[in-house]
Structure formats: C-alpha cells, structure tokens
C-alpha cells in the first residue's frame, strides 16, 4: 500500500461519513417514515418497476436475497405489497403495491424530495453547482462497469481555452515550467484559430468518460509541403490507455491526406514519453540544441517524419 492509496481510501471514507450524516441515513427510520433505509429502497424498487420479481430487486440493490425476502414478507403482512403467480415462471411471484402501499410510497417520496431539496437549498449557489456536478459524476462512475475508452473528436467551444489551461497546469506540476510556457501555448492556440484553413489545418480532442483527456493540433509549416504537429498532451490519469498514440496517428494520417510531404514537431528531451511516441510513429531527430526556457536548462529537439516514404 502506498501513501497515496491510503489517502485515497481515507478521502472516500470521509465522503461516505459526511454523506450519510448529512442525509440522515444513519437514522433508524428514513426521512421520518416508518421504514429503514433498506426497506425504503425495496419499496422504491417495487413501486417503480412493472410487476418485478424478488430476484430483480436483489440484483438492483445488491442485497442478500434472504433480507429482501424478509422485507417483502413484512410488507405483505402490513398490506403494502401483494404477490401473484407469474404465468411465465411459477416459482417467481409478481410483486406490486396495494393502494395502501402506493399511499405509503407517495408519502415517502414527498418527504425524501423535500429533505434533499432542503439540503440543496441550504447551500450557496456555487456549492450547489459543485455538489450536483459531483453527484452526477459519481453516479456515472458507478453506473458504468465497462473500462473507460478514449475517442477523438473535433474542436468545440471552450476547447482552445481548456487546452491552454490544462497544459499550463500539467507542465507546471510535472516539470516546474512557469507562466512562459502557458503563454506560449496560448499564442500557438490563438495563431491556430486566427490562421485556420480547413484545407491545411486540423485539431483533435481526446475524450474519455465525458471529459477531455488530451489534444493534438496539425498546422501548416513555414515551408511548402511541410506541416507541424503541435500541442500534444495527455492527462496524467489517462496515460496507459493509448491516447497519445491515437492522437499522433490521427495527426499523421490527416497530414498525409492533406498532401503534406513532411511533418515536423518541436519538443524537449525531458518529455520522454512523448519522444517515445514520436519514435514509434517513425519520426527522427533532425536538430538538437541546448537552451534555457521556461526557467530551466533544457534541450530542444526538432523531429521530422517523411510522409512520402
């Protein structure tokens, strides 16, 4: 176990404690109702499904089948739930709420909505927005069991600013580069927008789990037939997913399709992961110069790929 792992576990446990306390989930009854939290969840599943069977509720809630069975038995004895034979499967009974059950559920829903609504409204609008965005993100994470997969898309409003901001943050955090680097990225992005020619230029945003995880830009170079690969980056938590290779391959393929004979790029030797991607794609170093930039001693490199080979 690493320190970061232990801290991550502690953070998630702290969230769970705060969440359960603020919503009153530790109370013996839920939202002033006669139901415990698990009973309220079972009642919700019966109310919002069409003729469910007990096994559906077990799968939906991840509860022990015996616990669900006991809860349904109590609901039946209290006149909240009725069960009838399933013509398609004799062993599984179809469940539905009685009139009394529907009334109990309506009261529970009204109280729950009022309770959660009061919690939201007690927060400042800025914190409301943060809470709701985080809730949607958490729900999306747990609702999708498939591993995240990256896709590429074109530019959308806000992307140019996001690329500048994220590269400024990431390179400052990982390499200690100062504001000069972020300003350079901003200049490149502004120039791309100002001089954009769909017959010569292009850009891609890598996206995974609904957020930007990388970028790459293709721009016309300084000589005829020469293009430049610019602004490649991959978010730290998306590395190892093949995002960088996907971006580089898209840029190279587009440069060929647009009729360029050569694709150049500038980098520095400290960016070892990026240099491996370039080497794998067939680029070769054609120029190397020690320099001082971004407040550090670095080594500039120019790489080139012959697109006619």
UniProtKB/TrEMBL annotation:
User: Any idea where the HTH marR-type domain is?
Assistant: 5-140
Q: Which UniProt keywords apply?
A: Transferase
Q: Which PANTHER family match?
A: GNAT FAMILY N-ACETYLTRANSFERASE (PTHR13947), LD18367P (PTHR13947:SF37)
Highest taxon, organism lineage: Bacteria
In its UniProt entry, what is this protein called? MarR family transcriptional regulator
Q: Which organism is it from?
A: Caulobacter radicis
The N-acetyltransferase domain is annotated at 150-308
Listed GO MF terms: DNA-binding transcription factor activity; N-acetyltransferase activity
SMART domains referenced in this protein's UniProt entry, alphabetically: HTH_MARR
